[in-house]
């Protein structure tokens, strides 16, 4: 072997006696075969075998298997983002002429995908009241192939009666997909309630550090896994092993992070709800939250994301008030170590009339800072949002 070849082909280091707790990060496009025969037969390796880096490496397979166990499913697929996970499910299930039902409280880019991508291709969507429960049966006709649920709903936190929706959908031959990002599989297990596709934005609690984007879909039915993988292969979708490795690391601490932010978020939500003139606090673990009874029945706890509906009178002071924050950062997304506040306006995203949510809603994501520092920051914020005369009265 000459030097130039030596620069290309490294010698093999022994792995004997080596063991570590971490999952190795395997980067690969090419997968090697031992001989021509096994290369020719690569198509028979099946979906759990290795054929090309795009379709999986031991790193991504480890993450898939870990999520599968947590979800109580049969297989998991990994895609580049939460949004692509939703898109892959819809593109897999829906054909021209079909209809998908999405809740009014769905993650807003999903409505965009339905309206701007699916609709021009002959796939329809209908928007339903997230509190529909079993009465969703009235909206399911012979064209309905998929009912999407997201519980709690984006920003306004309505908890859906998932088992009732699943029963109604399955009775009429429709699949159910669930965005389980808020709860993670530690707090809610959609597949145990009959859901067909349990989807996550791993970018949030699983990643846990606001530094990656990844999505997953877990199913109980191997045939559905095959259909998802077919769609992914056609679209050329795969993920980076480095991102998978970061999620494997994030999962190690997800349980303790979630237990902590769940406790702190509920404590802060209760303290905010008890203060005058703050506006309505929307947290699934508080009884005023729509669907609170379904949360109490189906969920094992709460995560760190909740919202406060601001009174209209606070609107003009919002910019100033937010600039006083020292600990909370202003930004969307959630599930990381840093606490975030995102001022949201849901009106533009909602199709159904009703609801008091005309004005700004502050979506609060609790992170891992000291809870009393967070509380002090929120007191500063909400004091700055109050009418000057109210402040004077309170003094
Ligand atoms: C963030 C989020 C998504 C999208 O995930 P990305 O990885 O950012 O594409 C989908 N659903 C919910 C509920 C989310 O919070």
UniProtKB/TrEMBL annotation:
> Which reactions does this protein catalyse?
L,L-cystathionine + H2O = L-homocysteine + pyruvate + NH4(+)
Q: Which domain of life is it from?
A: Bacteria
Q: Name one GO biological process term.
A: L-cysteine catabolic process to pyruvate
> Lyase as a keyword?
yes
Alphabetically, the GO molecular function entries are: cysteine-S-conjugate beta-lyase activity; pyridoxal phosphate binding
InterPro entries for the chain:
Cys/Met-Metab_PyrdxlP-dep_enz (IPR000277), Cys_b_lyase_bac (IPR006233), PyrdxlP-dep_Trfase (IPR015424), PyrdxlP-dep_Trfase_major (IPR015421), PyrdxlP-dep_Trfase_small (IPR015422)
Q: Does the keyword Lyase apply?
A: yes
User: What UniProt keywords apply to this chain's record, in alphabetical order?
Assistant: Lyase, Pyridoxal phosphate
Question: Which residues get modified to N6-(pyridoxal phosphate)lysine?
Answer: 204
Q: Which cofactor does it need?
A: pyridoxal 5'-phosphate
**Family label:** Belongs to the trans-sulfuration enzymes family.
Protein's recorded name: Cystathionine beta-lyase
- Can you name the source organism? Phyllobacterium phragmitis
